[in-house]
């Protein structure tokens, strides 16, 4: 692709007012000396949504958009609208990045490699152990898939047990084992190497929320990955850090999924440092 090109990217979702994606992608474009805009496309859930999503797919097909991201609540709604799914998007059953390849609209999922790559800064992901994942929604799906694919034993705790059970049964062909638990400290396993929070408990503005009891110790040596990045240190992370546990927030995952999308859309190596600096401003 030529540097003189004007790129149009964007994010489809609802709500979007706290999204960091425009500043992350604008920083990436600037750092690569590329001209372009990253737009926010608010599409509320409802009867009109599929038509509005299809319009964005058409815009991509006709060259008015060069790529877009998808977030809550449309990651699954995009599945029937694309021509092809990558293996990861198809297996996870969710699309967060859309692009045109050889005239075909392709749905990809960069949340999975984004989470997995960032997790490597916290634990040895290639040495499969046991993980406890709190929550069983959209982001849990990507995290659970990534861990099971790497052979981890994953226990999923959700307040609606049927949601945890559905996720635990979603990937039977992956090497790791998955099981479901109620969201209850008494039911949690006593030993695990990694705790992953995928619930919004502790997220801005309700920063006092915490998905783990303040008085219950975490297993010795257990690392904590919290997908939340606002605030940068959640109550869960603070408690765990003070007790000597390695912790990490979800900013690295956010940057990495954006970086992978940027590389697909532009063919350039993503300027990850500039992207992170823009998100931290
Ligand atoms: P989601 O699809 O709504 O899933 C949230 C999960 O948490 C569901 O299982 C939900 O259960 C559970 N939950 C919500 N409130 C709870 C509570 N009070 N007690 C126990 N469980 C509760 O949301 P998501 O897309 O997975 O996002 C979850 C979090 O991850 C958000 O904070 C989001 O910002 C963050 N995230 C970060 C990244 C990143 O790149 N770092 C990417 C995606 C998401 P119910 O279904 O019963 O409500």
- Strands across the major sheet, in which order? 2-1-3-5-6-4
Largest sheet: 6 strands, mixed
Arithmetic mean pLDDT = 96
The total strand number stands at 12
Per DSSP, the total helix count is: 9
What hetero molecules are bound to the protein chains?
NADP nicotinamide-adenine-dinucleotide phosphate
Helix and strand sequence: EHEHEEHEEHEHEHEEEHEHH
User: What would the principal axes of the Cα set say about the shape?
Assistant: globular
Q: What class would the helix/strand composition place it in?
A: alpha/beta
Oligomer: single chain
What is the strand content?
A: 15-25%
Termini separation:
30 Å
| Radius of gyration (Å) | 19 Å
* Percentage of residues in helical conformation: 25-40%
Residue ranges: pLDDT <50 for 5 or more in a row?
Answer: none
Description:
It is a single chain. The protein has 281 residues and is α/β, with parallel strands linked by helices. The chain has nine helices and twelve strands. A hairpin with a 2-residue loop joins strand 5 and strand 6. Helix 1 (21-31) crosses helix 9 (272-280). It is globular, with a radius of gyration of 19 Å. The protein starts with 5 loop residues before the first strand and ends with a helix. NADP nicotinamide-adenine-dinucleotide phosphate (NAP) binds next to helix 5 and helix 8.
């Amino acid at each position: 692709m030529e540097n003189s090109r004007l790129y149009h990217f964007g994010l489809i979702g609802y709500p979007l007012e706290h999204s960091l994606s425009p500043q992350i992608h604008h920083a990436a474009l600037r750092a690569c000396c590329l001209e372009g805009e990253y737009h926010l496309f608010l599409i509320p859930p409802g009867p009109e949504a599929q038509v509005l999503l299809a319009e964005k797919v058409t815009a991509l097909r006709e060259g008015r958009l060069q790529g877009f991201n998808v977030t809550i609540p449309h990651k699954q709604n995009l599945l029937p609208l694309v021509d092809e799914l990558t293996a990861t998007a198809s297996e996870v059953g969710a699309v967060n990045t859309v692009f045109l390849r050889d005239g075909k609209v392709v749905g990809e999922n960069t949340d999975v490699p984004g989470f997995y790559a960032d997790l490597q800064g916290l634990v040895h992901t290639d040495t499969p152990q046991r993980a406890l994942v709190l929550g069983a929604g959209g982001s849990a799906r990507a995290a659970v898939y990534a861990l099971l694919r790497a052979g981890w034993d994953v226990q999923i705790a959700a307040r609606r047990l049927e949601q945890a059970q559905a996720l635990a049964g979603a990937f039977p062909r992956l090497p790791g084992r998955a099981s479901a638990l109620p969201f209850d400290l008494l039911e949690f396993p006593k030993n695990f190497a990694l705790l992953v929070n995928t619930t919004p408990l502790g997220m801005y503005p309700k920063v006092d929320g915490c998905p783990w009891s303040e008085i219950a110790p975490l297993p010795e040596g257990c690392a904590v990955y919290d997908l939340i990045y606002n605030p940068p240190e959640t109550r869960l992370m603070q408690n765990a850090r003070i007790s000597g546990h390695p912790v990490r927030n979800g900013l690295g995952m956010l940057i990495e999924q954006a970086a992978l999308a940027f590389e697909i859309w532009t063919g350039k190596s993503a300027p990850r440092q500039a992207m992170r600096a823009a998100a931290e401003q």
